[in-house]
Amino acid sequence: MTDLVIIAAISIFTAGMTVSFGALGPALGEGRAAAAAIAAIAQQPDAAATLSRTLFVSLAMIESTAIYCFVVAMILIFANPFWDAAMQVAAGG
Amino acid sequence: MTDLVIIAAISIFTAGMTVSFGALGPALGEGRAAAAAIAAIAQQPDAAATLSRTLFVSLAMIESTAIYCFVVAMILIFANPFWDAAMQVAAGG
Amino acid sequence: MTDLVIIAAISIFTAGMTVSFGALGPALGEGRAAAAAIAAIAQQPDAAATLSRTLFVSLAMIESTAIYCFVVAMILIFANPFWDAAMQVAAGG
Amino acid sequence: MTDLVIIAAISIFTAGMTVSFGALGPALGEGRAAAAAIAAIAQQPDAAATLSRTLFVSLAMIESTAIYCFVVAMILIFANPFWDAAMQVAAGG
Amino acid sequence: MTDLVIIAAISIFTAGMTVSFGALGPALGEGRAAAAAIAAIAQQPDAAATLSRTLFVSLAMIESTAIYCFVVAMILIFANPFWDAAMQVAAGG
Amino acid sequence: MTDLVIIAAISIFTAGMTVSFGALGPALGEGRAAAAAIAAIAQQPDAAATLSRTLFVSLAMIESTAIYCFVVAMILIFANPFWDAAMQVAAGG
Amino acid sequence: MTDLVIIAAISIFTAGMTVSFGALGPALGEGRAAAAAIAAIAQQPDAAATLSRTLFVSLAMIESTAIYCFVVAMILIFANPFWDAAMQVAAGG
Amino acid sequence: MTDLVIIAAISIFTAGMTVSFGALGPALGEGRAAAAAIAAIAQQPDAAATLSRTLFVSLAMIESTAIYCFVVAMILIFANPFWDAAMQVAAGG
Amino acid sequence: MTDLVIIAAISIFTAGMTVSFGALGPALGEGRAAAAAIAAIAQQPDAAATLSRTLFVSLAMIESTAIYCFVVAMILIFANPFWDAAMQVAAGG
Amino acid sequence: MTDLVIIAAISIFTAGMTVSFGALGPALGEGRAAAAAIAAIAQQPDAAATLSRTLFVSLAMIESTAIYCFVVAMILIFANPFWDAAMQVAAGG
Amino acid sequence: MTDLVIIAAISIFTAGMTVSFGALGPALGEGRAAAAAIAAIAQQPDAAATLSRTLFVSLAMIESTAIYCFVVAMILIFANPFWDAAMQVAAGG
Amino acid sequence: MTDLVIIAAISIFTAGMTVSFGALGPALGEGRAAAAAIAAIAQQPDAAATLSRTLFVSLAMIESTAIYCFVVAMILIFANPFWDAAMQVAAGG
Amino acid sequence: MTDLVIIAAISIFTAGMTVSFGALGPALGEGRAAAAAIAAIAQQPDAAATLSRTLFVSLAMIESTAIYCFVVAMILIFANPFWDAAMQVAAGG
Amino acid sequence: MTDLVIIAAISIFTAGMTVSFGALGPALGEGRAAAAAIAAIAQQPDAAATLSRTLFVSLAMIESTAIYCFVVAMILIFANPFWDAAMQVAAGG
C-alpha cells in the first residue's frame, strides 16, 4: 500500500466513527433536557418563556460537543493537513 | 489489493457503521422527548400548542446529530474526495 | 481474491449490519413514545386526537433514522457506486 | 477459496446476524408498548377501542424495523445481486 | 478446506447464533407484556377477556421476530441455496 | 484437519452456545411473568384461576423461544444434514 | 494435533461454557420469582398454598432452560456422537 | 505440544471458568431471594416458618444451577473421559 | 515451551481468574442480603434473632458459591492432577 | 511504511476518537444538569436568576472536560510536536 | 523465552488482575451494606448496637471474598509452587 | 520502524485516550452534583450561598481527576521524558 | 527481547492496571456509604457521632480492598521477587 | 526494537490508562457524595457544619484512590525503576 492510501483509509474510517460516536451523548443529553423542559412547561405554563430560553441555551451547549465531532470529521475529510502534506510529497516526488 | 479497492471497502464499511451507530442516540433521545411531550399534553391539554412547538424544536435539534451522520455517510459514498483523488491517479497512471 | 469479491463481501456485510444495528434505537424509541401515548390516552381520553397526532409526528421523526439506515443498506446492495466502478473496470479490462 | 464461496459465506453469516440482531430492538419496544396498552385498558376499559387502535398502529410502526432486517436477510439469501453477478462470471468463465 | 466445508461450517454456526440471539429480545418483551397483562387482570378482573385478547395479539406480534430468526435458521440448515449450488458444482465437477 | 473434524467441532461449539445463550432471555422473561403472577394472586386471590391460565399460556409462549434453541442444538448434534453429507462423502470416497 | 484431540478440546470447552452461561439466566429468573413469592406470602399468608404451587410450577419451568444446558453439556462429555464416530475411525484406521 | 497437554490445558481453563461464571447468577439470585425473605419476616413475623420454608426451597433450586457448574468442573478435573481416553492411548502407545 | 510450563501457566492464570470472577457475584449478593437484614432489624427490632438466623443461613448459602471457586483455585495450584501426571512423566522420562 | 505515515495515521485516528469519546460524558452530564435546572425553575420561578447562574457555572465546568478533548485533538492535527520533529528529520535527511 | 520467564510473567499478570477484579464486588457490596446500616441507625438509634454487630459480621463475610483474592495473589507472588518447581529444575539442570 | 516513531505513536495514542476516557467520569459526576445543587437551591433559596460554596468545592474536587488526566496527556505530548531520552540518543548516535 | 525486559514490561503494565481497576469498586462503594451517612446525619443530627463512627469503620473496610491493590502494585514495581531473581541470574550469568 | 523502547512504550501507555481509568470511579463516587451533601444541607441548613465536615472527610477518602493512580502514573513516567535499570545497563554496556 502506498502511503497516500493508508492516510485516506484511516481518515475515512475515523471521520465516520467520530461523527457517529459523537452523536450518542449529545442526542441522549438533549433528549433528557427537552423532556424536562416539556414536563416543566406543562407544570408551569406561565414560565414558558424562561423555560424555553434556558432550554435553548442548554441545547446549544450540549450540541456544541456534537459540533466538535462534526468539525473534526469535516477537517479529516476536506482539510486534512496530513493528506495535504502527503499529496505535496507525492506531487513533488 | 489495488489502492482503489482499499478505499472503496473502507468507505462502504464506514458509511454503514456511521449511519447505524448514529441512529441509536437520536432515536432514543427523540423517543424520550416525544414521550415527555405526550404525557405533558395529556396533563395540560391547554398548553398543547406551546408543548408541540417546544417538542418540534427539540426533535429538530436532536435529529441534527443523526443528520450529521447521514451527511457524512452520503459524502463517503457519493462525494468521497479520497476516492476522487485515487480515481484521478488511476485514470492518469 | 479479486477486487470485485472484496467489494461484494464488504457491501453484503455492511448492508446487513447497518439495517440491524439501525433497528435497535428506533424500535426502542418508538416503543417508549407509543407507551407514553397509550398511557396518556387512557388518562385523558378527550385529548386522543391531539395525542395521536403528536404520536404520529414523533414516530415519523424517529422512524426517519431507521429509514436512513435502510436507504444506505439498499444503496450498498443495489446502487453501490464503488461496485459499478469496479464492474466497469472489470468489463473494460 | 474461490470467489463464489467467499460471497456465499459472508451472505449466510450476514443474513443470520441481521435478522437476529434486528429482532432485539423491536421485540423490546413492542413489549413495552403492549405492556402500556394492557395497563391502560385495565385502567380505562371504556377507551379500549381507541387504545387498541393506537397500539396496533404503533406495533406496525415498530415491527417495520424488524421487517427491514428480514427483507435484507431474504435478499441476501435468495436475491443477492453480488451472488448473481459472480454466478454469471463463473458460468461464462 | 474444500468449499463445501466452509459453507457447511458457516451455516451451522450462523443458524445456532441466529436462533439464540433472536430468542433474547422476544423472550424479554413477552415477559414484560405477560407481566403487565397479569397485573392488569388482577386489578380489573372484569376486563379479563379484552386484556387476554390484547395480550395474545401482542404476543403473536412479538413472537413473529423470533419466528423470523427460526425460519432463517431452518433455511440455513435445510434449504440453503448456497449449499445446493455448491453441491451441484461438486456433483457435476 | 479433515473436513469431518471441522464440521464436528463447529457443530459441538454451536450447539452448546445456542442452548446456553438461548436460556438467558426466556429464563429472565419467565421469571418476570411468574413474579407478576404471584404478586397478582396475592393481591386478588379470587382471580387465581384466570391468572394461572394467563400465566401458563404466557410461559408456554416464552418457553417456545428456548425450545427453538434446544431443537436447533439437538438437530446440530444428532441430525446434522451437513455431517450426514460429509459422512456419505467420506464413506464413498 | 490429531482429529480426536480437536474434538475432545472443543467438547470440554463447550460443555463448561454451556453449563455456566446457562446458569446465569435461570438463577436470576428464579431469584426474582422466589422473591415475589416470599413477598406475596408475607402480604397474604392465607393464600400460601396457591402461591407455593404457582411458585413451584414457575421454578420448574424456569429450571427447564438450565436443564437443557446441563443435558447438552452431559451429552457433549459422555455421549458425544462426533467423538464416537471419531473413535470408531481411529479404532478401525 | 503433545495431545495430552492440550486436553489438560483446556480442561484446567474450562473448569475454572465454569465454576466462576456459574457463581455469578446463583449468588445474585440467592441474594435477591434472601433479601425478600428477610424483609418479609420483618413485615410479617408470624409467618416466619412458612417464609423460611419457601426461602430454603428456593435457595436449593437456585443453588442447583451453581452445583451443575461445580459438578461439571469436578468431572473435568477428576473424571475427564477425554483425558482417560488420551491416557490409555499414551500408555498403550 | 515444555509441556510442564504450559500446564503451570494455564493453572496460574485460571486459578487467579476463577477466584476473582467468583468473588463478584457472592459479594454483591451478600451485600444485598445484609442490607435487607439491617433495614429489617431497624424496622422490627423484636425479630432480630429470627432475622439474624435467616441472614446467616443465606450468607452461608451465597458464600458457598465463592467457596466452590476458592476450592477449585486451590486444587489448581496445590493439587492439580494434570500437573502431577505431567511431573510423573517428566520424572520418569 | 515510512515513519511519517505512521505518525500521521495514529494522529488522525486518535484525534477523532478523543473528540468523540470525550463528547459522551459532558453531553450526558450537561443534559442532567440542564434538566434539573429546568425542573427547578418551573418549581421556583422566583429563583430563576440564581438557578440560571448556578447552571451556567456548572455547564462551563462540565464543558471544560469536553474542551480538554477538543484541544488535544486540535493539537494532534495542527500542532503535533512529534509530526514536526519527524518533518524536520525528513526535510533534513 | 525460557520457561522461568513465562511462569514469572503469567504470575505477575494474574496476581494483579486477581486482586483488582476481586476488589470490585466486595467494595460495592460493602458499600451497600454500610449504607443500609447507616440509614438504619439514623432511623432507629436505639438499635445501634444490634445493627453495628450485624453490619460487622456482614462486612467480614463480604470481605472474605476479597481476602480469598488477596491470598491467591500473594501465593502467586511469594509462594508459587510452579515457580519453585521450575527454580529447582533450573538449579539442578 | 525506528525507535523514535514507536515512542511518538504510543504517546499520541495514549494522550488522546487518557484525556477522553478521563472526561467521562468527572463530567457525569459534576452533572450529578450540579443537578443536586440546582434542585436544592430551588427547594431552599435561603441557603443558596452555602449550597453554592459546597457545590464549587465539590466541583473542584471532582474536576481534579479530569485535570490529572489532562496533565498526564500534556506531559506525554510536550514533556515526555522517554522521548527526550530517545532524542538525545538519536542526536548523539 | 531479553528475559529482563519481558518481566519489566509485564510488571509495569500490571501495576498500572491493578491500581486503576482496583480504584473503581472502592470509590463507588465509598461514595454510596458517604452519601448514606450524609443523608442520615441530616435526618437525625443527634446521632451524628454514632453515624460518623459507623461511616469511618465502613470506609476503612472498603478502602482496604483498594489498599490491597495499591500494595500489590507497589510490590510489583519496587519489590518484585521475579525481577530480583532475574537480576541475580543476569548479574551472575 | 531495543529493550529501552519496549519499556518506554509500555510505561507511557500504562501511565495514561492508569490515570484515566482511575478517574472514573472516584469522579462518580464524589459526585454521589456531593449530591447527597447538597441535598442534605438544603434539607437541614442548621447541620451544615457537620455535613460539610463529613463530606470533606469522605471526599478525601474517595480521592485517595484517584491519587493512588496518579502516583503510580507519575512513578511510571518520572521514577520508573525498570527504566533506570535498563538505562544503567545501556550506559554500562
From TrEMBL, chains A, B, C, D, E, F, G, H, I, J, K, L, M, N:
NCBIfam families: alt_F1F0_F0_C, ATP_synt_c, PRK13468.1. SUPFAM superfamilies: F1F0 ATP synthase subunit C (SSF81333). The keyword Membrane applies. GO terms for molecular function: lipid binding; proton-transporting ATP synthase activity, rotational mechanism. Residues 13-76 form the V-ATPase proteolipid subunit C-like domain. The record marks E63 as: Reversibly protonated during proton transport. It is found in: Cell membrane; Membrane. Key component of the F(0) channel; it plays a direct role in translocation across the membrane. A homomeric c-ring of between 10-14 subunits forms the central stalk rotor element with the F(1) delta and epsilon subunits. F(1)F(0) ATP synthase produces ATP from ADP in the presence of a proton or sodium gradient. F-type ATPases consist of two structural domains, F(1) containing the extramembraneous catalytic core and F(0) containing the membrane proton channel, linked together by a central stalk and a peripheral stalk. During catalysis, ATP synthesis in the catalytic domain of F(1) is coupled via a rotary mechanism of the central stalk subunits to proton translocation. The chain crosses the membrane at residues 57-79. It comes from Marinobacter antarcticus. It is a multi-pass membrane protein. This is ATP synthase subunit c. Keywords: ATP synthesis, Cell membrane, CF(0), Hydrogen ion transport, Ion transport, Lipid-binding, Membrane, Transmembrane, Transmembrane helix, Transport. Its main location: membrane. GO terms for cellular component: plasma membrane; proton-transporting ATP synthase complex; proton-transporting two-sector ATPase complex, proton-transporting domain. Belongs to the ATPase C chain family.
